[in-house]
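hey all, quick one before standup. I had two proteins in the batch that finished overnight and I want to keep them in one place so we stop losing track of which output belongs to which input. First protein below, input sequence then C-alpha cells straight from the run.
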Amino acid sequence: MASSDVKPKSVSLAKKWSEEIENLYRFQQAGYRDETEYKQVKQVSMVDRWPETGYVKKLQRRDNTFYYYNKQRECDDKEVHKVKIYAY
C-alpha cells in the first residue's frame, strides 16, 4: 500500500459539536471522509479556510463542482451525530 493511499483503521460518530466536528461535517458534505482524503484525491497541499474562524471555506467535490461555506457554524446540533470521525 502506498503512503498516499491511507485507509482509516476505525470510525466513530460524533457526540458533541466542536471546531474539529464542524470541519469534518464540511468535508463529509462534499463527499470526503476528512481533510486527509480530500488532499489525496484532489492532490492539493492546502485547503481554503476562513482566517477569522479557521473553518473550511471552499471544497471541490469529486464531480468538480464547488461547495462554499459560511464563516459561522453550519453543522446544527441535530446533524452532529451524523458526522463520522475516522482514526488512522
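OK second protein, same deal, sequence then C-alpha cells:
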Amino acid sequence: MRPDDAGVPQVRIRMRLLTPFQVIQEIVAKVEDAFVNRDVDHDGRLDVEDTSKAIYGLQYLFSGEQASQLIAEMDEDRVGYVTLREFKRSFSPPYGSMDIWSAFLRADSNN
C-alpha cells in the first residue's frame, strides 16, 4: 500500500491502484450485479433458491443449512424473499467499510 499525492492510501488490484473508496465501490457493484443477474423477472426480489445462487455468485461458500440461515436473517420483513436492499445490506458496506479495509490490509501480505 502506498499513499497518493494527497496522502490517501492506495491498493494495487489487478494492476490498478485504487483508493479504499474505490475498492468499496467495486464490492458494492459486484453485490448488485450478483443480485440483478438472478432477478430474472426483474421484480426486485429473489426467492430462497435464487438468493442462494446469488450468494454463490459472490463466491461465498456456505453449506445448505448456513445459506438457509443467512437468507432467513437477510429477509428482514419475513415475506419469503430477499430484496436488493436487504441483499446489499448483508454483503455491502456499511456493514463495515473499515472492516473491509482492515481485512484487505491483513490479507495483503506483499503490500
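Flagging for whoever picks this up: The chain has a mean pLDDT of 76. Strands lie at 2-3, 9-13, 16-18, 45-46, 82-83.
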